Amino acid sequence: MDSPLIVVNFKTYAQGTGEAAVGIATACRDVAEEAGVTIGVAPQLCDIYRVSSQVDVPVYAQHVDGVSPGSNTGHVMASCVQQAGAVGSLINHSERRLNLADIEASVRAARAEGLTTIVCTNNIPTTAAAAALDPEYVAVEPPELIGTGVPVSQADPDVVRGSVEAVKKINPDVQVLCGAGISRGEDLIAAMELGSVGVLLASGIVKAEDPRSALEDLVSQL
């Protein structure tokens, strides 16, 4: 089985804010090195530079807007997160949903800055539409399963399998990540057996009593 991509979304959890973000990022780096996998982190925007400047780990923004320099108060420029140390960005997470035109603009803006894009989707048709925008990854996450501890690979495996098939038909260069409810080693293996190349997860690591141990369990069956 190929080495997966694991992306840990810190959301706005207190356990992943400020210096705590550095601690979790350090655990991600150490476990990635020991297991020979790639683990990226998506801290809050204000913590991108804090994490990227202190920890050698791939850092993703949680969001970017498709805007250029100018009068765009409150928006997030791709060039800004890139200069802060991010290598990529989530786009259209279920907690920061966009319309299709805005997703396209965000993908375009991120690509112009050399950022890797992970477009989040919630079902097969949305995944297919996102794949047509040519991001590097789509991450399928049924929102009703996010934070439940019930993995999508168990509750709704057809949405992952169907998303992989739809993406292959539309744009075989786009790769699929699996999200929602992922927390254990068997969840990661199941997601990859359904055709995904890795996982996007959050609370199972960030809110764990011992994030490092949770990460070690996640990669334990590879």
What brief labels describe this structure?
single chain; 222 residues; TIM Barrel; 8-stranded parallel beta sheet; 41% helix; globular; Aldolase_TIM; gluconeogenesis; Triosephosphate_isomerase_arc; isomerase
Radius of gyration, in Å, reads: 16 Å
How many helices? The count is: 10
Low-confidence stretches: none
**Biggest β-sheet description:** 8 strands, parallel
CATH class categorisation: Alpha Beta
Note the gap between the termini. Answer: 8 Å
CATH domain topology: TIM Barrel
Our estimate of the beta-strand percent is: 15-25%
Q: How much helicity do the residues have?
A: 40-55%
CATH homologous superfamily caption:
Aldolase class I
Strand order of the largest sheet: 2-1-8-7-6-5-4-3
Mean pLDDT: 92
Oligomer: single chain
What is the number of E strands? 8
Shape: globular
Q: How many separate domains make up the residues?
A: 1
**Helical/strand content category:** alpha/beta
Which architecture per CATH? Alpha-Beta Barrel
InterPro entries: Aldolase_TIM, TIM_sf, Triosephosphate_isomerase, Triosephosphate_isomerase_arc, Triosephosphate_isomerase_AS
Binding site for substrate: 9-11, 146, 181, 202-203
Function: Involved in the gluconeogenesis. Catalyzes stereospecifically the conversion of dihydroxyacetone phosphate (DHAP) to D-glyceraldehyde-3-phosphate (G3P).
Protein name: Triosephosphate isomerase
Structural notes for this entry:
By secondary structure, this protein is α/β, with parallel strands linked by helices. The protein has a single domain (5-218), classed as TIM Barrel (Alpha-Beta Barrel), CATH 3.20.20. It is 41% helix and 16% strand. The protein has helices at residues 19-35, 48-54, 78-83, 100-112, 124-131, 152-155, 157-170, 185-193, 203-206, 211-218; strands at 5-9, 38-42, 60-61, 88-91, 116-121, 137-140, 175-179, 198-201. Strand 3, helix 3 and strand 4 form a beta-alpha-beta unit. Helix 5 (124-131) runs parallel beside helix 7. The longest helix is centred in the N-terminal third of the chain and has 17 residues, at 19-35. It catalyses: D-glyceraldehyde 3-phosphate = dihydroxyacetone phosphate.
